Every structure is written in structure tokens, then in C-alpha cells.
Amino acid sequence: MQSGTAKFSALANGRSGLQCVLLLALVCGSLQASASRVLTDETGRRVTLPDHIGKVVALTPAIANTICALGGESQLAAVTAYTQYPKEVRNKPSIGDILHPSLERIAAIHPDVVIAMSTLNSPETVRGLERIGIPVYQVAGQDLAGVYRSISSIGQVLGREKEAQTLSAQLHAREQHIREQAKTNGAGPRVLLLLSIEPCITAGRSAFLTEMITAAGARSVTDDVKQDWIRMSVESLIARKPDYLLTLMDAPFSLNDLKSRPGWSQLQAVQRGHVLRIDDRLQVPGPVAFDGLEEFVRQLRAAEGAR
């Protein structure tokens, strides 16, 4: 193949100075075009990317998890704070939190692309990165269908389309198996997810965790509220009569805290000690969520068997 320099020399032979300049621009433009591609991200934006992605920055833990699940750990140059899965990413450089990442740190890395989540990362972050010439590809979903879409999209960005197809097929099979395991003759246990007790914050119908609860064969007692995250009074929750309370592993409160607080001690789930600490992986809308989901199904089956 003829190099850019040789190609220019051959074309420029016998040309005037102005013609040479024009030819050089033409050759450089041709080389640049051959080394780049244009993809449409999940928000409909057209993004120009290099053919080969050497460095990528992930702006959410779920994106970092997906990149690694596709075999792209060596391409992952930096992550946001609190990125935990897989454990290997914990040693990656951090560019700050999800809402306010450091554009200076990102720029210093010279990434080929930054991958963001449109439902979590701010438009200001995206615009700021584009102003300094860093392409931003956005994925959109925070539900199970969105996890599969993100796998396909990120696989395309990284040039790992085959890996994306394989990973999606594996996760679909695991999801089907989980749902089969979780099937019950009745409606399944009624659960209340607690993120905080002062104030009381729980998950509504649109939250990823609510979808995970349903996939596990249980039902959230707040799945009739359409928002992602909602604040509710203890009194209104008592009327919903959950069989179990769910808390994340790192929740700053315990069963004893609930028993000692007015209102909470009236919940039968508290009185009976039916509080399950669920796997933190369950809240990450990426491949690692399926590990958390399998563990949650085991917890529920063990708890139901002991009732």
C-alpha cells in the first residue's frame, strides 16, 4: 500500500505550489476519513470515532462493567468514583463522580472516546467534553432491555461486536433460567426496598431495582408509583404490608435500628425479622446485575423455605 507521503509526492510531481497545498489537504482528508467512522448513539447523535479505540473513559459504573465484560479492560483508561465491578477496575484512575466528572482529568488521558449514560450524566458534561474535542458516545437505558442495548452499542464502539453477541446470548439464557427458577404458584413475596429511613426513600415502578425484584419472582409494594425514587411516610408503608424489607449491603441502618424507631416497629416484616440485605451488584444496570439477581433469588428461596 502506498504511504501518505509517497502518495503525495507522486501526485505533486510537476504541480505548482498552490496545487501542492490543495493536494496535501486532499490527501490528509482522505487519510483521516479512512481512519474514522461515524456511529449513531442511542440518543440519535452522530459521533465520529477512530477506527480503533485504544483508550476509553466510562462515565458510569455500569458502562465500565460492560466494557470489561466485553473483554475491553485494557482499553478502559479511567472510571468514575464508586466503580466496583469487576474488582480489577478499582485500580483504574478516577475522573470524579458521575454528575461532576473532572474534564481536566479526562483531557489529560487523551481518550479516543468517552462513553456516557444520557439518563445519568449531565448534558453540560457532554457539551464540555465536545468543546475540547473529545467525542462522547451516549447509551440510554437503565432497564434490562437497556442493558442488552448498551452491550450491543458499546461492542460496536470498541470493535467487539462478536463479543457483544456472545455476551448478550449468555445473559439472555441466564435471565430465562432465573425467571424459571423464580416461578411460584402464587404472586410471590411482597417486598419493600429501603434506601433510607430518615427520610424514607424507596423505589418506584421505573427503577432498575424494581425490575430486578420482579425478575426474581417477588413484587415491590411500591410498583404502582411511576417515578424511579420516591419519598414515603412510614404510615403509608405499613398499609402496604410487605412480607420482607430489602436493604443494600452497605445500608447505614440495621434491623435493630428499625425495631427501635416509632412506626417501623409496627411493620410485621420488622417484628418477624424479615429483612434481607441484598447484593449491591443488583443495582448496577450492567452484566454484573445478573450475578446479583441470581444471589437474590437464592436469598428469597431460602427465606421462603424458612417461613
The CATH topology of the largest domain comes to Rossmann fold
Total number of domains: 2
Can you give the mean pLDDT? 88
Strand order of the largest sheet: 4-3-5-6
Cα radius of gyration in angstroms: 25 Å
N-to-C CA distance:
73 Å
Question: What does it look like?
Answer:
- This protein is an alpha/beta fold and 307 residues long.
- The chain folds into two domains: 37-174, 3-Layer(aba) Sandwich (Rossmann fold); 186-306, 3-Layer(aba) Sandwich (Rossmann fold), CATH 3.40.50.1980.
- The protein has twelve helices and 13 strands.
- The strands form four sheets. The protein has a four-stranded parallel β-sheet. Strands 10-7-12-13 form a four-stranded parallel β-sheet, covered by helices on one side.
- β5, α5 (123-131) and β6 form a beta-alpha-beta unit.
- α1 runs antiparallel to α2 (17-34), α6 runs antiparallel to α7 (161-182) and α7 (161-182) packs parallel to α12.
- The radius of gyration is 25 Å and the shape is elongated.
- It starts with a helix and ends with a helix.
- Residues 1-12 and 16-34 have low confidence and may be disordered.
Features:
307 residues, alpha/beta, Rossmann fold, 2 domains, four-stranded parallel beta sheet, 13 strands, 16% strand, disordered N terminus
Topology, element by element:
Layout: H1 4-12, H2 17-34, E1 36-40, E2 46-50, E3 56-58, H3 61-69, E4 76-78, H4 103-109, E5 113-117, H5 123-131, E6 136-139, H6 144-158, H7 161-182, E7 190-194, E8 196-197, E9 200-203, H8 208-215, E10 219-220, E11 229-231, H9 234-238, E12 244-248, H10 255-259, H11 268-271, E13 275-278, H12 289-306
Parallel strand pairs: 3-4, 3-5, 5-6, 7-10, 7-12, 12-13
Antiparallel strand pairs: 1-2, 8-9, 9-11
Helix pairs in contact: 1-2, 6-7, 7-12
